[in-house]
Every structure is written in C-alpha cells, then in structure tokens.
Amino acid sequence: MAELQSVESALEALLKDVKAGDVERIDCEAAAGRVLAESVTARLDVPPADNSAMDGYALRQADAGQWLPISQRIAAGHAPDSLAPGTCARIFTGGEIPPGADTVIMQERVEAQDAQAYIPDDITLGDNVRRRGRDVRADTPLLEAGTRLEAAALGHLAGQGITQVGVYRRPRVALLSTGDEIIEPGQSLAPGQIHNSNRPMLSRLLERFGAELVMRKHVADDFATTQRLLREASERADVIVTTGGVSVGEEDHVKHALESLGQLDLWQLAMRPGKPLALGRIGQARLVGLPGNPVSCFVGAWVYLRPLMGALLGCPRMATLPRLWARADFETRTQARRHYMRVRLEFTPEGVVAHAFADQNSAVLSSCLEADALAVVPEHTTLNEGGRVECLWLTD
Ligand code: AMP
Ligand code: MG
Fold this sequence. Notes:
The chain is an alpha/beta fold. The protein has 4 domains: 7-21 and 170-318, 3-Layer(aba) Sandwich (Molybdenum Cofactor Biosythetic Enzyme, Chain A), CATH 3.40.980.10; 23-43 and 143-168, Molybdopterin biosynthesis moea protein, domain 2; 51-130, Beta Complex (Molybdopterin biosynthesis moeA protein, domain 3), CATH 2.170.190; 323-393, MoeA, C-terminal, domain IV (Beta-clip, Beta Barrel). 19% of the residues lie in helices and 33% in strands. It has helices at 7-15, 151-159, 198-208, 223-236, 253-261, 294-313, 366-369; strands at residues 23-27, 40-41, 51-52, 56-59, 66-74, 88-91, 103-106, 111-113, 116-119, 129-130, 141-143, 164-168, 172-178, 182-183, 194-195, 212-219, 239-243, 263-268, 271-272, 276-282, 285-290, 323-328, 332-333, 338-348, 351-356, 373-377, 382-383, 388-393. The strands form 8 sheets. The chain has a 6-stranded mixed beta sheet, with no helix packed on it. Strands 16-13-17-21-20-18 form a 6-stranded mixed beta sheet, with helices on both faces. Strands 22-25-24-26-28 form a 5-stranded mixed β-barrel. Helix 3 (198-208) runs parallel beside helix 6 and helix 4 packs across helix 5. The radius of gyration is 30 Å and the shape is elongated. The model has no long low-confidence stretch (mean pLDDT 96). The site of adenosine monophosphate has 16 residues, from loops.
C-alpha cells in the first residue's frame, strides 16, 4: 500500500500562493463578518469628554464635607455650564462633567434639601468620572488589517463615526455535490437513493467561513456533465468545492473530468475520516474535492476549507483552529491514520472533559450534531479513558 500523506503537507499544498482578493469599500452597516483590508486609526477620543459614571452630584472634591447649593442640572446629551465655585451640579449617568468639577458622588450618599446638597467628606478625587479618551485615544491604532468585523469591532467603528471600511472581497465558491444516488430534500426516496446532506451542511459552513456561494449544483455520475459543470464553476468561482467522486471507484468522475480540464493531485491522507482528498486547479480556480461521506465533508471543511477561506479573506486568525487540551471520557486506538473525533466539550471545575459520540463512523452524521470540537488522536496512539487529548475548537 502506498504511503499515506500528512494533513500538514496537504494543507501546505492547498495554501501555497493563496492571496487575499481585491479590496472593496462597503458600508459598515453591511460589513458584519467581513475582514478589514486596512488598518483603521482612531480619529476621535472616546468618550469625547469627561462624563459621569453615576446619577449623583458633580463638585470640586475640595468642597466636600458641607452643604453646597445645587447650581445646575446636567442630563446626558446636554452641554454643561462651568461650575460656579462653592456649588455642586445635579448630574446623571453620561452627563458631561462641567468645567471646574473634578469628582462625582453617587446620589445614594447625598442628602438633598431645598436646592442644597450635603456632600460627605470621604470622597476621592476623580471618583465616578469617566475620563475623556479612556476607551480610545484619537490618532492611535483602532483596528488592524485582517480583523474580522464582529460585534465589538463594528461597535468600535461606529464609536468613531465611521460609516465605510475597506474589506477584502469574499471568496466566490462553487459547491458541486456528486453521485447518482443523491436526491434533494422534498423528493421522496426511490430504492438506492439518499438525500443530499452535504449541500446544506457545507453551504452553512462556507458561509460561516466568509464565502459567497455563487453556484450550487448537483452533478450526476457521468463524465460529460461533470466536465461541463466543472468548467462553468471555474469561470464563476475562486474555489470549487466538490463532494464525492474522488475515490478510485469506476463511478468517480471528478478525477477524470478535472484531469481533462486542469491539473489535479489526489491525496491519500493519514487522517480519519476523510482519507481521499483532491486538490487541483482549473484556470484561476482552485478545487478542493472532499469525499462524499457527510462526516468526511464536515471534518474536511473545518480542516481544509476554513484555512483556505481565511487566506482568501486575508484573515490570519482563521489559519488554525483554537486548540485546547481536554480529558477524554473515552478510549481509542489509532493506527496509521490520525483520528479527528467529534466531541462535545464539558467545562468542569476540574478542567475540560471531551465526550465522544459513541459511533465515530464516517457515515454517521449524528456524531457531528453536538460536536463543538475535534479531538485529534495522533497516528499509532493508544488513548486511555481519562487521558489527555488535544482538541480543535470548532469556531469560525
Ligand atoms: P463517494 O465519495 O462518492 O464514494 O461517496 C461516499 C459515500 O457518501 C456514499 O455512501 C455516498 O452515498 C455518500 N454521499 C456522497 N455524497 C453525499 C451527499 N451529498 N449527501 C449525503 N451522502 C453522500
Ligand atoms: Mg459517489
């Protein structure tokens, strides 16, 4: 039997010369999940002025320990007047600290009567004042190129009054499932048929990884159709993802069709699930041919498609999945192939426990349902119950 190839070498071949796509300027409103193509520098201090962290009274700390006249009322959103010496100001959370005041005391600690407030003397200078620029200082770096724009980053951009950003174009992906036995949901099964699980599953994962799906077709097991659709996909997409048809069976037409159009490498990987993998090119388009088994597709998407999308999106964080160590609540033994087991993580006070779904067969999609990580059991390893296992956290 020919020697198996490593996951790392396949990844290296897959990612070789992959560059992020063109840059486009888009509205921040539409930028969720996109990746910044430029670093953003803050233009404004946030907050733009000192303001109160409490409902209470603003004063000069030196004036504490006596009754002070209440000389103004400052609600959030209204500009204050300077604080007259020897007075205090009624102030509300977010209200701007008036010039002349340096401290806020919370209202619960103040006795107020007839437009006067008694301020106890044990208050600390600067208490309850949120300083101008505490969060962000103008002219300092705000977000780095390569940042994926998620909730806090979008909030940060808005905090600067920014409405548009430069982001990398989303990778265009064509998804082709193969197999004469596959029919779409909504049609009833004839003998020998099964429904197409891979299409919705991979569509969802690819969307999470930032792709734009430009073509989704099912391809019958015949050479001419496979060739025609692969050619069409290569004209429309940056990446063609196929499922099924990359083993060496007689009905595996992806291989032959691809060889007729472009260039193809068939890999036999030291991994389980998902031993066969096809990597190739048609013109400018890259092809990733995953095996047909739904679990192999699921694992293959996390292991190969996520880093590929990350490289095309210009997002370095997506190159690798976060890793953590867990205690296995199962035992297993591997031979020549590294096993990517689908596990549910339980976070306990004693540490993280990995629970493996009982049936880890590559045709059993149930094993992916509650999987929040892949426990990676290396080649030629015996893992005992309670042993430590490295897990790849399935997060986009
Ligand atoms: P293949 O790699 O084409 O030999 O397919 C391997 C196994 O995966 C076969 O049992 C197929 O029926 C199954 N399979 C292939 N494609 C799909 C799909 N899109 N949805 C569900 N099962 C599939
Ligand atoms: Mg097939």
